[in-house]
Amino acid sequence: MDNEYNRIVIVGNGYDLALNIPTSYNDFLMWHLKEAAISSMNRPYNDDPLFKIKHTPYNNKDQIKSNFESCKEIGSFLNYFKRNFKFEYTSAFFEQLIDQVLDTNWVDIENIYFNFLIRNLKSIQKSEPLNRNYEAIEELNTQLDFLKNQLEKYLIDVQTKYKISSLESPMGSLHDELNEKLTRDQAYIMHKLHDTEIGNPNKIVFLNFNYTNYLKQLAFSRWPGNIIINIHGELNNPKNPIIFGYGDDTHPMYESLENEHNDVVLKQIKSFYYPKTHNYHSILGTISDKPYELFI
Questions:
Q1: Dihedral of the CA atoms 252, 254, 255, 257 (nearest 10)?
Q2: What is the pTM of this model?
């Protein structure tokens, strides 16, 4: 048929959240604090690079753990946490993450990281190029690497605990719509053609920004011909490791990072990791293949 076209569907974390999967950064940060607190009850030292935590011996550790589990939002958890444990931030970066969660019930880890990176860089640039000390940025990078590793552990745990059924999923009707041509009015707006002049999309390409495999489970259940490009990597896949860091290389300060000529300031910039897999070239190939629709 003439008028062939592809369809690109951009998928973000709203997809997993719509499945009632706890994959927000809020969920992750509260999990990390809980895990650290429980661990601290079993050993006399703290090995978390983001905070110090200490407890005094408790008679009923099971009750403590049960109380942790009953806390469903981070504010109530922190109140209980600080009453029962000696707690001290050792990372201003992590402290700001928690403050933003408490203030807005939402947090952008990568954007806050970038703000700290730029703040540190401006301070470093007050020295002559040959005398610049990048230890503060190296420490910040270490903290983000630690959080990235913990995030992967958390999401692997979530993926193990939370199962979905394609038959019961609220996304079933959405996937039907994504695999079919647009209605008459929509088709005209998108293609300037009557819907009788176009067929279903030639191929559906999901550009997936999530690390989990829930999209794969549902997208392939009834539509095995769909293509998923996991642009930010996948859990437990060394051939497509997760990419976590700052992604906006159009930021006014980005050029300053490149001009620093030091790898440490660019270590957590996403665009440097895209060429290590075929994902980026795959989406470019889809864009250049034939006309395409873009769904978000």
A1: 140
A2: 0.93
